[in-house]
Amino acid sequence: MKSEASLKKRYFLKLVTNLVGLGVGIGTQTIVPRALGPASYGDFTFLTNFFYQVVGFLNFNTSTAYYTKLSQRQHDTGLVRFYLYFTLFLGFVLSVFVALCFFSNLKHIIWPEQVELFIIFGAVWAFMTLCVMVLSEMSDAYGLTVKSELLKMALKVIGLLLVVILFWKSWLSLATFFLYQLLMLAVTIGLLARVAQKSRFAFSHNSKLNKEQLNVYLREFTVFSAPLVVFSIAALLEGVLDRWFLQKFSGSVQQGFYGLAYQIGTLCFFFSSALVPLVAREYAISFGKKDLNEMGRLFSRFVPMLYAITAYFACFIAVESKTIFFLFGGKAYAGAALPITIMCFYPILQIYGQMNASIFFATNRTIEYRNIGLAMIIVGLPLTFFLLGPKGYGALQAGATGLAAKMVFVLVISANVQLWYNTKILHLPYKRFFKHQVVVIVLFSFIALASSYIVRDLIFSNAYFLTQFVVSGFLYTLGIMGAGVVFPSLFAFKKDEILNLLRGVIAVKKLS
Fold first, then answer.
1. Are 391 and 397 in contact (CB under 8 A)?
2. CA-CA distance, 281 to 138, in Å (whole number)?
3. Is pLDDT above 80 for 218?
4. Nearest to 337 by CA among 316, 354, 323
5. Which residue blocks in 169-275 are alpha helix, DSSP H?
6. What are phi and psi of 187, to 5 degrees?
7. How far out from the chain centre does Cα 185 lie?
8. What distance in Å separates the CA atoms of residue 59 and residue 229, rounded to the nearest whole number?
9. Torsion angle of alpha carbons 304, 305, 311, 316, nearest 10°?
10. Hey, how many other C-beta atoms are within 10 angstroms of the C-beta on 20?
11. Nearest partner of 437 among 356, 359, 379, judged by Cα
């Protein structure tokens, strides 16, 4: 139980910083889409998503292998140096790709109606984002979560202040927002590297690897990533085509609607994202000890809990999408209401997607992971064309709504196929997890709809919309808490844990 106690402590500390990050994220998202407008915001999300997909392809999931192996071999400085070389090589390849597209004039086909400077900014943004992700995962693998998260929290607060100043001075444009993003990423990279260096884990004095060491690490990463090469190519094709079809046939405005919907969905994932990498680390360590029982216990304990926590936020926001789009973007984003509603269900299933992937990678079952992923891409690509393609070809040209629907539909299938395979390995009942998924979404959505109806149609029908939103949220929270007390299994709790919690609350009230 010591590992779980340590895990809870690190989760709590990471959660505190995520709470600050959530506030900063909400503040930023209420300013940036409104200031840039749907078209410019759409261009930003289109370019950053494109290059994020390309970097993900060039990465071949090696970052996951690196995190898994570093969690198991925390003092392997050669591994750190090897991956540093690999990351720099990846940046070089990305630069060559962009240069070739510019010289061959492919830029007009690949990035319709985009400015060259912003294309370059998008590529640099994606590479620097990868560096931040790798350094953050290193911090988690080394147990430096607290230091790194406090650092990122401070930078997020400073970043929000900069955004407010840019907005106040009317300096916030697509160019200045890109420059702001690159500045914050550069500072984050430098400080995270400094934290690792001061903790004497990474970047030792000996910066060179001999040929034999290079070959050993190359073989190790090749064994892990080779089965994923075909999958990575297919995933890149699907990811790029999703946004390319949206840009080509629906334009930057619909791109902006989808970008806003995706970002709001990401906010729903804020609380749960604090624990996902920490649990993934415990999976890797447990498998290193050949302890499948501990992996199964962690999966049963934390996956339903994170699923319910994410659903608590997502179901309410899905019901309140008309208020949400106005708060974050203003009237110009009215067309984003339905995409927001649909995309709110994406982060709920993303819990299973990420936790399942962690199990596959921790147990070195990359071939199974690849096969499931390829099957989903075969389903997803025709669906992309049908939902986003031009009406003249029999497609729906449904814009942001169509892409949101496609993303959620494919994730529902893939997450549950992966879950079925993982429950077999961990000797857990698949039906229990599937039932939990359905019950949580149906129950939480019903409570959200009921709360909204009671407030808007019965009690505060003439009140200001923000008043209605806050009161509805309060009533919804009370309903979820009541459901959690009556059915503690919704949050993966046991009845005695709920009773102990209630006794603690009563004792605190008596003392006060």
1. yes
2. 11
3. yes
4. 323
5. 174-198, 211-225, 229-268, 270-273
6. -65, -40
7. 17
8. 10
9. 150
10. 17
11. 356
Angle between helices 399-426 and 430-453 (to 10 degrees): 140
Q: Is 231 exposed, middle or buried (0-12, 13-18, 19+ CB in 10 A)?
A: buried
Contact, 419 vs 413, CB < 8 A?
Answer: no
Q: Pick from 410, 78, 100: which is nearest to 211 by CA?
A: 78
pLDDT at 8: 57
Structure tokens at 35: 């200031």
The number of beta carbons lying within 10 Å of the beta carbon of residue 254 is 26
Closest CA to 94 of 66, 125, 138: 125
* HSE-up (13 A, CA, CB side) for residue 154: 9
**Total-model pTM:** 0.78
pLDDT of residue 17: 65
Q: Is the dihedral of CA 413, 415, 418, 420 positive or negative?
A: negative
Query: Alpha-carbon dihedral of residues 100, 256, 355, 500, nearest 10 degrees?
Result: 150
Helix/strand/coil for 397:
coil
Contact in structure between 400 and 258 (CB atoms under 8 Å)? yes
Per-residue model confidence as pLDDT tens digits over 59-85: 877 877 787 777 777 677 788 888 888
CA angle 193, 120, 61 (to 5 degrees): 55
For residue 38, what are its two tokens? Answer: 């749907």
Cα separation, 359 vs 235, in Å, equals 20
Tokens of 395: 């497609």
Dihedral sign (CA 142, 94, 215, 212) = negative
